[in-house]
Amino acid sequence: MNPALEPLMLVFAGEDDLPVPTHALFLGAEPHEALKAWPEIVGWQPFKPLADAWETAGFKRVDTPEGKWPVVLVLPGKAKDETLALFATAYDLLEDGGTLVAAMPNTAGAARFEKELAKAAGHIASLSKNKCRAFHAVKDGRWNTATVAEWRELGAVRTIPDTTFLVQAGVFSSEHVDPGSRFLTTHLPRSLRGHVADLGAGWGYLSRWIDDHCTGVTRIDLHEADARALDLARKNLADTDIEVCFLWNDVAGGLHHIYDAIVMNPPFHSGQLTDVGLGKAFIHSSARALKRGGKLYLVANRQLPYEAELDAAGFAWRKAAEDATFKILIAEKRAS
């Protein structure tokens, strides 16, 4: 559970604090037992595992937040532009007199973002607990709307300089083409054929390269857990000549097709923490989803221990390349 959830709920816990609203919108929604007592709570959550957890807990989820709400709860991400843009979205979705309530871990810059919100809203109230901070402000007509407009612009879709790729604050590699993915393309064979999967596809860089260079590929499936990145991928691959499928999927939970080849630059962070378990889960999902003799093309930071996992998953593999930061592992599924 996100540690900021507890202080977020405490804002509504005491007699002198905010009353539980008749209905509320939760941006970055994650379930908490206290929310089950609320009359109506609707959540927006772009990250598939957390969206599944929200719905499994019995709460309503929307793909696109809209309308006007008396309370908007916000659990922001860790990127500055993403957080400020989310504040602007919350402001736009509040009815007049409504309250924006945000909570963040101190390690994610809670104190800094509390000050940022105060720049726009003026007076805010806050509390601290569990090394997190919750703070809230009323949309009372005195907000600095120029500041909110600047935040809103931070969340706009934009183009990476010197490319045609569309990106957005908060998605992976939103400022430049990821160097690991770029390194992988220098070692992907143009002879790739058939049905290919791109795991953790992000906004579509690897799939775009495959579409542009591998004429034998008949279909690409992009598996991505961040719905925002997947929407960008749809735009970045809008003009492909082959079949492309965009799958909002938690790869760690498995794949639902069999592939001739898989490419991936697996994530290795969960929140702010390194989590090599994500990459390991990607490897095991790949092993189950490849044809016999199918190839896996993986790029990773040099220090990440994926070689033993390839062995455990039944792959025959080799290190195809390495530089000061990254390594490329090419693995083949053994006949079983």
What is the number of domains?
2
Mean pLDDT: 94
CATH fold-level assignment of the largest domain: Rossmann fold
Biggest sheet strand order reads 3-2-1-4-5-7-6
Could you say which structural class the secondary elements and strand pairing correspond to?
A: alpha/beta
Global geometry:
elongated
The CATH class of the largest domain turns out to be Alpha Beta
Low-pLDDT residue intervals, each spanning 5 or more residues: 269-273
N-to-C span: 39 Å
Query: How many β-strands, per DSSP?
Result: 18
Please bin the fraction of helical residues. 25-40%
The main β sheet shows up as: 7 strands, mixed
Radius of gyration: 22 Å
SSE order, one letter for each helix or strand: HEEHEEHEHEEHEEHEHEHEEEEHEHEE
Helical element count? 10
CATH superfamily of the largest domain: Vaccinia Virus protein VP39
CATH architecture descriptor name of the largest domain: 3-Layer(aba) Sandwich
Can you offer a commentary on this structure?
This protein folds into two domains: 5-154, 3-Layer(aba) Sandwich (Rossmann fold), CATH 3.40.50.150; 158-333, Vaccinia Virus protein VP39 (Rossmann fold, 3-Layer(aba) Sandwich). 29% of the residues lie in helices and 31% in strands. It has ten helices and 18 strands. A seven-stranded mixed sheet has the order 3-2-1-4-5-7-6, with helices on both faces. Strands 12-11-10-13-16-18-17 form a seven-stranded mixed sheet. Strands 8-9 form a two-stranded antiparallel ribbon. InterPro entries: DNA_methylase_N6_adenine_CS (IPR002052), RsmC/RlmG (IPR046977), SAM-dependent_MTases_sf (IPR029063), Small_mtfrase_dom (IPR007848). This is Class I SAM-dependent methyltransferase. It holds the Pfam family MTS. Residues 163-329 form the Methyltransferase small domain.
